[in-house]
Automatic annotation (TrEMBL):
SUPFAM superfamilies: Thiamin phosphate synthase (SSF51391). It comes from the Bacteria. Pathway: Cofactor biosynthesis; thiamine diphosphate biosynthesis. This is Thiamine phosphate synthase. GO terms for biological process: thiamine biosynthetic process. Pfam families: TMP-TENI (PF02581). Residues 8-182 form the Thiamine phosphate synthase/TenI domain. It comes from Paenibacillus antarcticus. One of its GO terms (molecular function) is thiamine-phosphate diphosphorylase activity. Keywords: Thiamine biosynthesis.
Amino acid sequence: MCARELHVISNGQSELERFARIASRIHPYVTAFHLREKSSTAKELWLAMLSFKAGGVPLSKVIINDRVDVAWAAGVGGIQLSHHSLDVEVIRRVFPGLRVGRSVHNVQEADEMYKQGADYLVYGHIFPTNSKPGQQPRGTKSLEELVKKVPIPVIAIGGIILENVHQIVATGAAGIAILSGITESDNPLKSAREYRRVLDR
């Protein structure tokens, strides 16, 4: 089996330069860095790309949410789409060099995105999380059902901590996506190493 994927996602609230500095330290342990910055301009995202590059982070590991123009111009590895984004099949046709991910919320949506040509899916939230107050988590059983349904990698997100990573691994998911568990840690490098260690057990 290929190494399980560890995705680290920006929270849209911290400075992008800080996120880039953290990425420069932890990138050997990380599969992908997502810039999920809904309020950032194209110029701000572009400058963040320069910071990533200056810090020695391979741009092939960088994924930009929604802004395919910046992703293509900067030469990063991929684009992450959601329900309000351009369709997967459009991105696949017009920007064939990008790895295309799509956030999904049920098996039917996952199957459709697979048929459109998505390279991987992000599914959640799996466990309770402060970023989704009052919303019922989808749980590992639904994650496992989705993993069995689609033949492309599924990345689990939401409320994932070191103590429950083994539950994600048991579903057959390809990996996990982490927000504050690494970037808001007192020691991001140590946290990234620990997540990598439990993923690779």
